[in-house]
Structures are given as structure tokens and as C-alpha cells.
Design a protein that fits this description.
Number of strands: 2
Structural class: mainly alpha
Helix content: 55-70%
Number of helices: 8
Largest sheet: 2 strands, antiparallel
Shape: globular
Order of helices and strands: EEHHHHHHHH
Strand content: under 5%
Length: 174
């Protein structure tokens, strides 16, 4: 049992491979297993995003171009609203740490919009995205506290991606 902010108690399902494989929404929301990392699952999900973006883009550059990535990110955002909403309801907690699809989609957006980028630039994007996602500067923390369900899970990471992209835009101007 877990005590919620409202003072009520709720049963929270422990994440694991059995839970993840019980429904396609769980598999997606938990980043195909990357969210089951015992250490910093959000970082593990972001690493999966970074790896998959680079592998797919370099292996099939004619297929995974900017337009394809843009479509995948938009579709992935909508898919994430459903998957994270369903998984959150099934776990008994709106935004469990094992749900990392939001990091994956948001970091794909960052990588798409800074491309072409060197490995060093991508590393800095990774670091800054994780900083914004973990520290949740305003209004990210407000969104995280007040917008629940699948949309809320997905949205606060999009705002973290926006902050990362804003930092890179300022960096390029200076």
C-alpha cells in the first residue's frame, strides 16, 4: 500500500517483466524493458531513445529521415497517452518511475531538432534533457503535479525537451 498526496492509500503494482508482458500498453510505457532498470529508469529509457535514434537513422537513412521521425514522434506521443494512461491505472499510480515512453518520445524530439549533431553535442543534449526532466523547473513541476493520466505523463517530458532545445538555441546564438 502507498499513501497518496490526498492522504488515501492505494495498491501499487510492483513493476516487473510479468507485469510488463501482461499487456501491450505496459510493454510500450515501460520502454520495452528499459524502464525496469533498478537504477535510474528514466535515464535508461533516455539511453534507449538515443541508441535507437542513432541506430535506425544510420542503418536506414532513407527510411528514417526527418519526416519519418516527425511522424513517429507525433504518433508515439498519442500512443504514449494511451499506453501510459493504461499502465498508470493498472499500476495504481499515475506516473510510476518505470514508465519511460515519455522520455523516449521527448528525447527523440530533441535529437531530431538538433540534427545533424556530433556525438558530443548529442551527449550534451542527453545531459541537459535529464537535468530538466529530473529537476523539473517551472512550469514542468506544475504540469507534473496537476495534469494526470497519460497526457500528463507525456507532457512534462515534452516541456523538458523544449527547455533542452531552448538551451541549444541560445548556445548556438552566443
Amino acid at each position: 500500500m502507498t499513501t497518496l498526496e490526498s492522504g488515501q492509500t492505494a495498491h501499487v503494482t510492483k513493476p516487473g517483466s510479468r507485469f510488463m508482458l501482461a499487456h501491450p500498453a505496459h510493454l510500450i510505457a515501460q520502454g520495452f524493458g528499459s524502464g525496469l532498470s533498478r537504477v535510474m529508469p528514466g535515464t535508461a529509457g533516455t539511453l534507449l531513445a538515443w541508441l535507437s535514434f542513432n541506430v535506425l537513422s544510420s542503418r536506414w537513412p532513407g527510411v528514417f529521415d526527418a519526416a519519418t521521425w516527425g511522424g513517429m514522434i507525433a504518433a508515439g506521443f498519442l500512443l504514449g497517452i494511451w499506453a501510459c494512461g493504461k499502465t498508470g491505472r493498472d499500476m495504481g499510480i499515475s506516473d510510476h518511475g518505470s514508465m519511460v515512453w515519455d522520455e523516449i518520445i521527448a528525447f527523440w524530439l530533441v535529437l531530431l531538432l538538433i540534427a545533424p549533431a556530433t556525438g558530443e553535442t548529442q551527449l550534451w543534449a542527453f545531459i541537459w534533457f535529464r537535468v530538466f526532466d529530473m529537476l523539473k523547473p517551472p512550469p514542468i513541476a506544475w504540469f507534473d503535479r496537476h495534469i494526470k493520466g497519460g497526457f500528463g505523463v507525456m507532457w512534462d517530458d515534452i516541456v523538458a525537451a523544449f527547455y533542452t532545445l531552448l538551451l541549444f538555441a541560445l548556445w548556438r546564438v552566443i
